[in-house]
Amino acid sequence: MRRFLPLLAAMLAMPALAQDAAEPPTPASVVAAAPASDWRAIEPADLLVMTLAPDRDGNPRQVVIQLVPAPFSQGWVGNIRALAKAHWWDGMTVYRVVDNWVAQWGAGEDEEGKSKPLPEGLRVVSESEYTSTQLDIQLAGLEERTPEMERAVRQAVEAAQPDPREDEMTADITSTRTRQAREGWHERDSYSTWVEFFESWPVGNDSRPDADSEFWPVHCYASVGVARDLSPDTGTGAELYAVIGHAPRQLDRNIAVVGRVIEGIEHLATLPRGKGEAGVYDDPALRVPIISVRLGDELPEAERPRFRYLGSDTASFAEYVRVRAKRNDSFYNVPAGGIDVCNVQVPIQRRVAEPK
Amino acid sequence: MRRFLPLLAAMLAMPALAQDAAEPPTPASVVAAAPASDWRAIEPADLLVMTLAPDRDGNPRQVVIQLVPAPFSQGWVGNIRALAKAHWWDGMTVYRVVDNWVAQWGAGEDEEGKSKPLPEGLRVVSESEYTSTQLDIQLAGLEERTPEMERAVRQAVEAAQPDPREDEMTADITSTRTRQAREGWHERDSYSTWVEFFESWPVGNDSRPDADSEFWPVHCYASVGVARDLSPDTGTGAELYAVIGHAPRQLDRNIAVVGRVIEGIEHLATLPRGKGEAGVYDDPALRVPIISVRLGDELPEAERPRFRYLGSDTASFAEYVRVRAKRNDSFYNVPAGGIDVCNVQVPIQRRVAEPK
To answer: pLDDT (tens digit, 9 = 90+) per residue, A1-48?
Structure first.
């Protein structure tokens, strides 16, 4: 019997492990266990804070939107920064809400229906900017982009390991390559050859990721996009919407995704649905006044929104996706075995203190 | 030049066709063009009409739920019919609302928090009823099911054409086979080997459809399911929820899907989100009283809900899915090329007159 004692001693020394064995990990337990080093701070400058008029009971309504990082949709994001700095949305309204679709605001008319000219200097963005290439991703943020750099990136991409995804059909966790839009999880889906995460943003991809392959941010619940007229119009960014229903992935590559609501989506999702044409409020009294929209770094230090997200290049994120795809805790009988990209729901939290 | 005249004459004689060529079909135009024979009436007996207390402005709030047809989830559907006939939900509340998840009602407590015993005779349903087999589908609705019948069905399934789906990856339209859960469209997805439509209900399937292969109704926006405690509890059907966000497909085969909201989902989706544990309203004043829940055929003739759905075994439905998956009308630049099952949004309409 004696030979079993060391094992018993080891078990007694690891109560946490013994407990883990009894109850499998849940998405919540994986997030709770993620080390501080797996979280990334979101700069206040990359957040829009939209303050709506209080609700009928006087409760405040604040919606916080994270802007999508470079290289994605930066033409529109630049316009949105300019519009926010000009305080252009102040006095505008949320004026269109369609069930299982979108809540929309902006439109250049204020509460009284007076139109407001756009600030000068907004870019007219080309449809080609709905997507970004692997080259764009590698060279994002550089002041200058030379043919030499592009050549170097092409060589690096070509020299990389053969893509293990070619042989895969279902969710799987692979090693990551920094600054490639391929972090820890990827899957085929009905809308693109691959979906995966880039800096914790869900993106689609049209082919195996060579230097010229295209990537684009996809529409999920709470995604923020740029309303537009018919093609070739691409919208300025002055008129925005947030998704309040099942992911409308058919809009991918057809409308610019510029951000996602990371707090306060319920203030948009619970608004009454519009009964006018295309869900516009036919009763102007239903329009929800926008008190202000500010970039986070324009707010006084104490009011700046401080958030962090779980990095999609971390082991915690890979484990989070794996557990979400294969729930086998006490509530679940049948683990799905897979997951769709919009069901991953990237962990984003208020920061109580600066991460180390 | 003369030889072009017949063509010109033909074009003048077909203004509708000429117009179609200019503007490709949209989902709406396909639905509008569907002949009456492609629509199926929904029997009032297969509908639940839930009347909530009016909203703060006195507007009525009615939610209409279609119950899932046999063979799916019939243990719970039977209980739900019994609960409705007993007027069991009258005086209960909607008491839990979670953003991008569910609105839930029932729970055995009325507005004052008094508990109410369940009616007698409800079945305890087994977890095995989360799925139905191809045999169940073929033999659904029969009073008696003999080994001879099962043998005949097995032979028929085996003798059927080889499944063309084996070689396919993306949305495609194939011919239909009546009474097989495979009507006009099917696709692989992350949650099941196949998803497809059975009598216009989205269902998952675990393998190529031999006689014993399993099918199950899937969770989409507005799906109605049976809340339950931990496994092996499966719920009685007294406590129900409706999905008000992105399809929570991980619940498939883990909770019984018993229906879908076909009108009035906005009365649930716009409710304030609960701030108590698991989204339960901590403030009892937020609970939404249920005035009544009735089966459609219990209502007076004039009030009976009359709806119809586009049959998933019709050419109109196949074209509707094709067009939704490959939008190329004037708004869209890039057709997605595929679609996920919960984005198909089965056309369901109020009937103005009985279909012929």
So the answer is: 223 333 333 333 333 444 455 689 999 999 999 999 999 999 999 999
Contacts of B327 in chain A (CB under 8 A): 250
Q: pLDDT tens, A260-315?
A: 999 999 999 999 999 999 999 999 999 999 999 999 999 999 999 999 999 999 99
Q: How far does B87 lie from chain A, in Å, by closest CA? A: 29
Task: Please tell me the distance from the alpha carbon of residue B264 to that of residue B344, in angstroms, as a whole number.
Answer: 19
Q: Which residues of B touch A222 (CB under 8 A)?
A: 100
Q: Which chain B residues are Cβ-neighbours of A221 within 8 angstroms? A: 100, 245-246
Residue for token pair 């049948």: A334
pLDDT digits (tens, 9 = 90+) for A61-85: 999 999 999 999 999 999 999 999 9
For B75, phi then psi, to 5°, come to -60, -50
Output the pTM of the full model. 0.89
Identify the three-state secondary structure at position A211.
coil
The ipTM estimated for the assembled molecules is: 0.89
Residues of B in contact with A250 (CB under 8 A): 324-325, 327, 332, 336, 339, 343
CB contact residues (below 8 A), chain B span 294-353, against chain A = 324-325, 327, 330-334, 336-340, 342-343
Radius of gyration for chain B, computed over Cα atoms and rounded to the nearest angstrom: 23
- How would DSSP label each residue in B226-272? E---STT----SSSEEEE-SS--GGGTTTS-EEEEEEE-THHHHTSP
Q: How far is B326 from chain A (nearest CA, A)?
A: 9
Please spell the DSSP secondary structure of A281-330, one letter per residue. -SSGGG-EEEEEEEEGGGS-GGG---EEEE-TTSHHHHHHHHHHHT--ST
| Partner A contacted by B283 (CB < 8 A) | no
